[in-house]
Amino acid sequence: MSKTQTLAAASCNVLVRHALNPTSSAQINPIVGFLFRSYPVLMTNENSAELMDSVFASPDLDLRARLLRIIQDFLMSESSKFMAQEKGD
Fold first, then answer.
1. Contact call for residues 64 and 56 (beta carbons, < 8 A)
2. Pairwise CA distance, residues 32 & 81, whole Å
3. Where are the domains of the chain?
4. Long-range contacts of 77-86 (CB under 8 A, 24+ apart)
5. What is the three-class DSSP state of 22?
6. What is the pLDDT of residue 89?
7. What is the pLDDT of residue 36?
8. What pLDDT, on the 0 to 100 scale, is given for residue 52?
9. How far apart are CA 10 and CA 32, in angstroms?
10. How high is the mean pLDDT in each 10-residue block of the chain (89 residues)?
11. What is the pLDDT of residue 69?
12. Geometric angle at alpha carbon 35, from 70 and 23, rounded to 5°
């Protein structure tokens, strides 16, 4: 893991802990979303999984939709990479 990825992971862990707090989640969740978009591997972090669980359990449909879009973007990019690799072989 590069220094940038390590820093992003550490930042994500701190932000996720704050995002689980209802009083700060509205400000923190978009930042965590940007980190997930830039470093999708952070979504596999245990703290991140806890945050995603809380998002899906919340009544906020907009927040759920944003998280689903992030996951969908990641899966589409991975699919594109896989397809390009298959064409190259």
1. yes
2. 24
3. 3-88
4. 77/40
5. coil
6. 65
7. 81
8. 86
9. 12
10. 78 76 75 81 82 86 86 87 84
11. 87
12. 90
* Cα pseudo-dihedral 74, 75, 79, 81, rounded to 10: 20
Length of the chain: 89
Structure tokens at 77: 């990019």
User: CB neighbours (10 Å) of residue 33?
Assistant: 17
Residue with tokens 């906020």: 60
DSSP element (H, E) containing 14: helix 3-19
pLDDT given at position 24: 73
- State the pLDDT at residue 1: 65
pTM (2 d.p.): 0.70
- Please report the pLDDT score of residue 27 as a whole number: 79
The whole-angstrom separation of Cα 8 and Cα 40 is 11
| Residue 81 identity (one-letter amino acid) | K
Q: 22 with 56: CB under 8 angstroms?
A: no
The token pair that represents 80 in the structure block: 């594109």
Residues 6+ apart with CB under 8 A from 9: 1, 39, 42, 45
